[in-house]
Automatic annotation (TrEMBL):
Keywords: Hydrolase, Membrane, Transmembrane, Transmembrane helix. It comes from Bactrocera dorsalis. This is Protein ABHD13. GO terms for molecular function: palmitoyl-(protein) hydrolase activity. GO terms for cellular component: membrane. It comes from the Eukaryota. InterPro entries: AB_hydrolase_1 (IPR000073), AB_hydrolase_fold (IPR029058). The chain crosses the membrane at residues 18-36, 42-62. Residues 113-219 form the AB hydrolase-1 domain.
């Protein structure tokens, strides 16, 4: 907001601009109350509040700009000595997704599993490069890293429906490549990415295109997370008022592919009991859960036994074995600084 003085525009201080808007809104409500009465004024206030709550939810859930410059700077695999190819994936609704294809040497790429990596709700795929390094070097798998619409260099705006389309477009893209084994596609998702993975695994068509699914520190649903993060009274809000629902606790019962649940018991964002609930409700006959006492929301991957547990699960999936996983050592890693988001 600005005023002109002597033909020269002078910007008002930001605090004054906000004050002016607040005063204008209050005056508008007073006039509306004067002419239409209290009942219609309350109804108008409720309608505006509901509208704002519904459309501001995306800002509360999706954080592609955190940390700063995440939309203009995406660390590349080469920074961690990983071979890679930058690819563009097009969705049915004309969005272009930016992805990194990190492949094992040509003679091995067709014989090993391929991870499709869905990250959390903040930053971009480049912020997960240390975990990618571990998957590449410890599990010896190919990895397709993907930035959702509105994240990193991908176009579009994030939404629940949009991320669902993105995930399916990514799987379709893999089936256009001839440098991997299409029977060994593994979906991996952390936090928000776990909800995306469960959505795909519950799809009767796309579940046939993957070997197994792995979710890490993910939640049961957005309404239930609102109760945890906002206030217990949030459970009184009708489900239809949530723009993004991600009803994983309902979808997981429809999943039949082998499932691995990785839970950090020191997670202070997503309650570990949500991971246990998803495990219990999972409809798969071949499901496993790995729990790490020292694992927090973003750093469970540094725990001792993490990659060993995933490796054993992958061996089981490829051999159709039902032998139980070995419990990982209950020992915290000595790393103190985490660069993940």
């Amino acid at each position: 907001m600005s005023q002109e003085f002597g033909g020269v525009p002078i910007a008002l201080p930001k605090s004054r601009s906000i004050y002016a808007v607040v005063v204008a809104v209050l005056l508008a409500f007073l006039l509306f109350y004067y002419y239409y009465g209290s009942l219609l004024t309350i109804l108008l206030l409720f309608t505006i509040t509901s509208f704002c709550f519904y459309y501001l939810q995306d800002m509360l859930l999706y954080h592609p700009d955190l940390p700063a410059n995440s939309r203009i700077y995406v660390p590349i695999p080469k920074m961690h000595n990983l071979p890679h190819e930058s690819v563009s994936i097009h969705t049915p609704d004309k969005v272009t997704l930016h992805a990194f294809w990190v492949s094992q040497p040509k003679e091995r790429s067709k014989a090993v599993p391929t991870f499709v990596y869905f990250h959390g709700n903040a930053g971009n795929m480049g912020h997960r490069m240390q975990n990618i390094w571990g998957i590449f070097n410890h599990l010896h798998c190919n990895i397709l890293m993907i930035d959702y619409r509105g994240y990193g260099f991908s176009t579009g705006v994030p939404s629940e429906k949009g991320l669902s389309l993105d995930a399916r477009a990514v799987i379709d893209y893999l089936y256009t490549r001839n440098d991997l084994d299409h029977t060994k596609i593994v979906l991996f998702g952390r936090s928000l990415g776990g909800a995306v993975v469960i959505d795909v695994a519950a799809d009767t068509v796309y579940s046939q295109k993957i070997m197994c699914a792995i979710v890490e520190n993910t939640f049961t649903s957005i309404p239930e997370m609102a109760v945890e993060l906002v206030h217990p009274s949030a459970n009184l809000i009708p489900r239809c008022c949530f723009k993004n629902k991600y009803l994983s606790s309902w979808k997981i019962g429809k999943c039949s592919v082998p499932f691995l649940f990785i839970s950090g018991l020191a997670d202070n964002l997503v309650p570990p009991r949500m991971m246990r609930t998803l495990y219990m409700k999972c409809g798969s006959e071949q499901k496993r859960i790995l729990e790490f006492i020292g694992g927090a929301h973003n750093d469970t991957w540094i725990m001792d036994g993490y990659y060993q547990g995933i490796h054993q699960f992958l061996v089981e999936c490829q051999s159709i074995s039902t032998a139980p996983l070995e419990k990982p050592p209950e020992k915290s890693n000595v790393w103190h600084e985490i660069q993940d988001v």
